[in-house]
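User: Working on a comparison across species. This one is DNA replication and repair protein RecF from Enterococcus alcedinis. Can you predict its structure so I can line it up against the others?
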Amino acid sequence: MRLNELQIKNFRNYDEAHLTFDKNLVIFLGENAQGKTNLLESIFVLSMTRSHRTAQEQELIGWEQENAYIKGVIQKKHATVPLEILLTKKGRKTKVNHIEQKKLSSYVGQMNVILFAPEDLSLVKGSPQLRRRFLDMEIGQINPIYLYDLVQYQKILKQRNQYLKQLFEKKQTDELYLDVLTEQLVEFGSKIFLARQFFVRRLEHWANQLHHQISQGKEQLAIEYVASLPLADHTDLATIKTDFLAALTKNRDKERYRQMTTVGPHRDDLIFLINQKNVQTFGSQGQQRTTALSVRLAEIDLIQEETGEYPILLLDDVMSELDDSRQLHLLKTIENKVQTFLTTTTLEHLKNKMTVEPEIYYVQQGLIKGENAQ
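Assistant: Here's the predicted structure for DNA replication and repair protein RecF from Enterococcus alcedinis:
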């Protein structure tokens, strides 16, 4: 999969830009705070419909503008597909092949991207919420049904928590409606549990291979899916539903008192282990970086295995965060395999490591210079 063309209008600090891409390695070069990351962000938004940097869509729209527009033309194995997204202060509209898409699940997955940025260390060091978001975004790209189940689950979870609060405050007394919400939560939540378990198992397979190579055979990486509901290694959907319902039934009095649902995918987490030691607690910064790198690179093969297409890789100023050996391994892993968009303030650390000729764009104060920039 390749991105052949990118158009943006009123996005962040860009009034308008039109770029075409001929090569597999595209470098956005410039000083800090010039707009390099904004270009990668526009590609990410085109893929996922939302930013990795902010939940406030208004921040994506240019100053004193009503909307922002992004269009990309992607080349798949058997088709060229135009994608469009219009961001307004009221929401967003998406199009595939010029046809408006009403459902998120019918749009996300058209263009698969992997983003690796310095803040990816938070995947290892940060909160469980960040790791759940990682799971949701990555599984959602390769499994549209997962996105639908997730949206439904989140909607029902909100309703159930509100109703638990009303029961606690004696504003409601009907336990039957709580039963209905509980059954719906179990229906969608169980599918999420199962999809996450399956994804993490496959991710661990690829990530451990890469980590073993990067560490020169010294370290083994394991990824544990810590579900809020105990899951057997090879469980099925029916068993998960039974166990999930039993856990919610057992916790009902506690949940009413706390006015919140205490068991479900919204309480899940991941643990990364190097040689059986928790990387978050006991790992060095180098090990944490290697873990984050291994996980991101593992997604390349995982997505290709699932979809038959390699994803597009976005590297936001990460080369300066990696030592020489990790830089070399990263470039070796991606060369001639995936189209890569990379931001950097200098080419010095790349000159002797690149084996393919890059396409370079110079970025300064929202203006882009390059032979294919318009």
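For your comparison, note: The longest strand covers residues 2-11.

User: Helpful, thanks.
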